[in-house]
Structures are given as C-alpha cells and as structure tokens.
Design a protein that fits this description.
Layout (H helix, E strand, L loop, with lengths): L4 E5 L30 E6 L3 E6 L6 E7 L8 E2 L12 E7 L5 E6 L18 E3 L2 E3 L70 E3 L6 E3 L35 E2 L8 E7 L1
Parallel strand pairs: 1-2
Antiparallel strand pairs: 2-13, 3-7, 4-6, 4-13, 5-12, 7-8, 8-9, 10-11
C-alpha cells in the first residue's frame, strides 16, 4: 500500500494544505465506516507565538518534536571572552489526541545576547498541550566566571534544559569563554561533564520530517584575544547564541539564541 505524506506548514494561523484536498478525512467529512487512516501528515509550527491545533478526523495519536528557544550568548568587554548560550530543550515522543479537540501550541523565541557586562538571557519555552520544552540558559558575560573560567554549560537532564557557559574573566590566563550545554553533551566536552573549551555541546538529531536535522546545540564561547560579536543560533533550531569576545577597551554583544519549533506527525 502506498502512503501519501502531506506537509502542513503552520507559519500562519491558518492551515495551508499542500495537496490531496479531496480526501474525506482532510475535509472533515465522514469517511466510510471501514476507512483506515493511511495518509501520513506533518504539521510544522515555526512562527513565534501561540496557536491552536485541532486534531483532524481519525487522528488519535501524534509523534511530536518540541524544541525550546536557545539561550543568548554573553556580552564581553576589555580583553574578556563570554560564554555561549545553552541549547533549548528538545523533547520527542508520542501523545494521544482526540479528533475534533483543540490543543494549544506555543513556539518560544531565543534569548537575547548580552552587551558588554550583561549575560545572555534564557530562551523561551515551547509547548504542545501539557508538554513543555524549556528554553536554554543564557551564556555568562565575560567577567562572570561562575564555576571556573571558561567552564562549559551542563547538558540537558530529564526535563531540564542545557545551561549557558561561563565567562573566562580577563585574558590573564588565556582562557576562551565556555561553550553552552547541548542536549546530548555538555559544553566544552564530549561527555555530559562540562569541560574548559569554547565548543558548544552537541544537539539532538531527529528525522521526524524525513531529514536528519539537529536541534538544541550549545553556542560556542568567545575566543580569547579576538574581537567580534557572537553569531546567532539558527532560526527554528533552538541552538544557543555564540558568546562575544573582545580586546582592550572593546565592547561586544553575544549572539541571539535560535527560536524553537514544534513538529507533529500523524495519520489521517
């Protein structure tokens, strides 16, 4: 049996059905009593804000991907390197739904990068009904070396989002800013234990759309003895923003965290 896949892009508040508008289940008409759901449908929510999704006829279970917004990178000043933002929490699984029932969806924005002495802000949570994926932690500003200069952020644990990396202080010890934690590894480390390194932690790879895409990676920390504004996390990935870094008498801004995303897959 051939299974048709229909992609529904929820970038506006209205459903835009890409194809097969004549099928009874998609038009909310009554199908024959012996109808077996066989049309694989993917609904993607990418715009920041709150939406309502109504479970269509014959949809009783969904596979979901929920990604919170990434944390913003820390700001930097006068020979300091800031920490990268933590990745937004990535949640996957299945969830029972009832046809015709409305469910609330929220897509969270990424955190704002800090300027000069300000740390990045935390990302905002994304949610589907009662399932909540928190935003990643903001990266610390360059002189905030909480936990140790250049220490990476924690990886996600259960329902806790990754945290941002620490600043390196000034350049006396030549340390980079700590990488933000990711969903599968900590910042500055190939394990879940944070290490001293600018590298952001690794995210979680999902193929719910049919493509392997990684979400919720940590942002890199700033690199000592350079001067640049941190790069922002990619939109709709939940990746953390990059930490800024500076040279003498310089001020820079951390990168903004990538916004979150929600993807639902189901048969109708």
């Amino acid at each position: 049996m051939c299974i048709l896949i229909i992609y529904i892009d929820m970038t506006t508040r209205n459903w835009r059905i890409k194809s097969n508008r004549t099928k009874c289940n998609l038009l909310h008409l009554k199908c024959p009593d012996n109808y077996v759901p066989s049309t694989l449908t993917v609904s993607t929510f990418t715009v920041i804000g709150s939406f309502t999704w109504v479970a269509p006829n014959y949809a009783t279970s969904i596979e979901y991907l929920i990604v919170g917004g990434g944390g913003g990178g820390g700001g930097a000043y006068d020979t300091g390197s800031a920490g990268g933002g933590g990745g937004g929490l990535v949640l996957t699984g299945t969830y029972s739904v009832s046809p015709g029932t409305s469910y609330t969806i929220n897509v969270g924005d990424g955190g704002t990068g800090g300027f000069r002495t300000a740390s990045g802000t935390d990302g905002f949570a994304s949610s589907f009904d009662t399932i909540i994926a928190d935003g990643g932690g903001g990266g610390r500003q360059s002189r905030d070396a909480t936990g140790g200069p250049g220490i990476g952020g924690q990886s996600s644990t259960l329902l806790n989002a990754p945290t941002g990396g620490s600043g390196a202080g000034n350049r006396v010890n030549g340390d980079n800013g700590g990488g933000g934690g990711g969903n599968t590894t900590a910042g500055g480390s190939s394990s879940t234990t944070p290490g001293i390194s600018k590298e952001g932690g690794l995210g979680l790879t999902s193929n719910i759309t049919g493509l392997d895409i990684t979400y919720g990676a940590g942002g890199n920390g700033g690199i000592v003895d350079t001067s640049y504004t941190g790069s922002s996390g990619t939109t709709n990935t939940g990746n953390g923003g990059e930490g800024a870094t500076t040279v003498s008498n310089d001020n820079k801004t951390g990168g903004k965290g990538g916004s979150g995303i929600i993807i639902l897959k189901y048969l109708v």
